[in-house]
Design a protein that fits this description.
This protein is an all-alpha fold and 272 residues long. The chain has two domains: 116 residues, no CATH class; 154 residues, no CATH class. α1 crosses α4. The structure holds zinc ion (ZN). The site of zinc ion (ZN) has 8 residues, from loops.
């Protein structure tokens, strides 16, 4: 077996494990934030058992049956259990193996592109943060600061250390322009319609994408995310799944655009 075969194999295995961890973050982080808000406002709901990324241990959300180690192996347990809880036979959400496989695929692509090293680790961290943000936004319409803000700083650091291959100037202006662009769209939309078209987390997410991918990629990012968002909105509307106020999480579309530009660069003809 050649070295590159093994390199990709290890990347896929690491991706499955990180993907499994991302599933925990996606499920628990919004609930932890809710618990914190409840605690801050002195609400009844705050008085409960400790709940964080580690406690309680993984369990079936239907019957609370704690998972044995053999039921908690990324992807393989889902296949071995044929997608059902061993205890109550309720189906396990497809999202879990899906996130694990997407993470594995992204990690393999990143290692294929960069080989093992700091660049691969940095881009793997970038991709992981984006996946968590996309799923959390789709579930809850939240883009937690605890992920978006480090994303911006890490992108600037990676540029300054020469790890991301983006110049520091391009990264700084990517972060600034990314934030300001959606901020301006937000206020324009609010001024014209009196409604909030997007959440403030979207500004920070595009700032992060700008820091990692550089300001010349912003036009591609925004255009691609907008087209995907419109298509996604039409798709949800046709299936009757669009929320009553017609609001749409924009984060997942920004994430898809960001991962696309990471892998293939800006759209042809749109690179400033
Ligand atoms: Zn169960």
């Amino acid at each position: 077996m050649s070295d590159s075969f093994w390199a990709l194999g290890w990347a896929g295995l690491l991706g499955l494990m990180i993907g499994s961890f991302l599933n925990v973050v996606i499920y628990r982080l919004p609930r932890m934030m809710q618990a914190q808000w409840d605690a801050d406002t002195g609400s009844q709901a705050a008085r409960g058992q400790p709940f964080n990324l580690a406690i309680p241990g993984s369990h079936c959300p239907h019957c609370q049956h704690p998972l044995r180690w053999s039921e908690n192996i990324p992807l393989f347990s889902f296949i071995a259990l044929r997608g059902r809880c061993a205890h109550c036979q309720q189906p396990i959400a497809w999202r879990y193996p899906f996130i694990e496989m997407i993470t594995a695929g992204l990690f393999m692509g990143i290692v294929f592109q960069h080989g093992w090293g700091f660049a691969a680790l940095a881009w793997a961290g970038f991709a992981s943060a984006l996946l968590a943000l996309a799923a959390i936004d789709a579930d809850t319409r939240l883009l937690p600061d605890i992920i978006t803000q480090p994303l911006v700083w890490a992108g600037l650091l990676a540029a300054s250390l020469g790890i991301s291959g983006i110049g520091l100037q391009e990264a700084v202006w990517g972060a600034v322009a990314g934030y300001l662009f959606l901020w301006a769209v937000y206020w324009l939309f609010k001024g014209l319609t009196g409604k909030e078209g997007m959440g403030q987390g979207d500004f920070k997410l595009l700032a992060g994408l700008g820091a990692w991918l550089g300001w010349p990629a912003l036009l591609s990012l925004v255009l691609m995310a907008s087209i995907l968002g419109i298509l996604g909105g039409i798709g949800l509307k046709l299936r009757g799944q669009l929320s009553d106020n017609g609001e749409l999480a924009f984060g997942p579309y920004l994430v898809i655009a960001g991962l696309w530009v990471m892998a293939f660069g800006p759209l042809p003809g749109l690179h400033a």
